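ok new one. same drill as before - structure tokens go in, u give me an amino acid for every spot. 215 of them this time. try not to just spam alanines like last time pls lmao
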């Protein structure tokens, strides 16, 4: 069968498109690391990288608003919240895994030891009704605090290591260093998993230092 000139012209573009384009290769250089010569993270270098990332996001949000006339929905994310106050709390290094310190809860104030956890946003302590894995921890007695209020809600938390906590929600006054929060939600645990038993977890409870949106 003989192909006409029109047929050949119709086939030629298909042949051209089927031919793979040459691959363009770009040499990459590894940027400086965040560690020193001993392999230990350098806090100043880490802070510089965080500042650079925050600057990029800020410029991107500004450009979005200039181009669209509307603020980006993430422009007011937790990272943009301004620091309102600071306080100092002595911390104890527990085996290089936990940083624990003291907080006060209730009226009159009662001191508890908590793990300050930057990866969560919830505060919980063993409640007086906790009968599972709470032995050895100081209990949060809501009946003894004049500022404690029962929120009539329960809670259930699960952590990355498989540890879990269940209990009831109250609000009360919480003091950390020189900072005081009123009507702060506090979980009164009714059950700790073995991961929060005294042998595995020396602090009484845990205070999440993360954003409220992940609570």
């Amino acid at each position: 069968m003989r192909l006409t000139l029109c047929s050949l012209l119709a086939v030629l573009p298909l042949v051209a498109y089927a031919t793979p384009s040459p691959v363009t290769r770009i040499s990459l250089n590894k940027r400086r690391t965040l560690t020193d010569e001993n392999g230990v993270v350098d806090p100043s270098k880490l802070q510089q990288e965080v500042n650079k990332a925050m600057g990029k996001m800020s410029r991107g949000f500004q450009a979005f608003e200039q181009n669209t006339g509307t603020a980006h929905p993430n422009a007011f994310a937790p990272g943009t919240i301004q620091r309102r106050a600071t306080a100092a709390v002595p911390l104890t290094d527990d085996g290089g895994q936990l940083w624990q310190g003291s907080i006060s809860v209730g009226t009159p104030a009662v001191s508890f030891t908590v793990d300050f956890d930057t990866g969560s946003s919830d505060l919980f302590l063993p409640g007086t009704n906790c009968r599972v894995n709470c032995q050895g921890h100081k209990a949060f007695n809501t009946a003894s605090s004049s500022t404690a209020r029962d929120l009539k809600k329960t809670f259930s938390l699960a952590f990355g290591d498989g540890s879990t906590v269940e209990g009831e929600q109250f609000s009360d006054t919480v003091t950390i260093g020189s900072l005081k929060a009123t009507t702060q939600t506090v979980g009164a645990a009714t059950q700790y998993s073995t991961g929060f038993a005294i042998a595995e977890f020396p602090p009484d409870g845990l205070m999440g230092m993360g954003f409220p949106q992940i609570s």
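The chain has two domains: 51-80, 92-214. and btw Helices lie at 5-18, 43-68.
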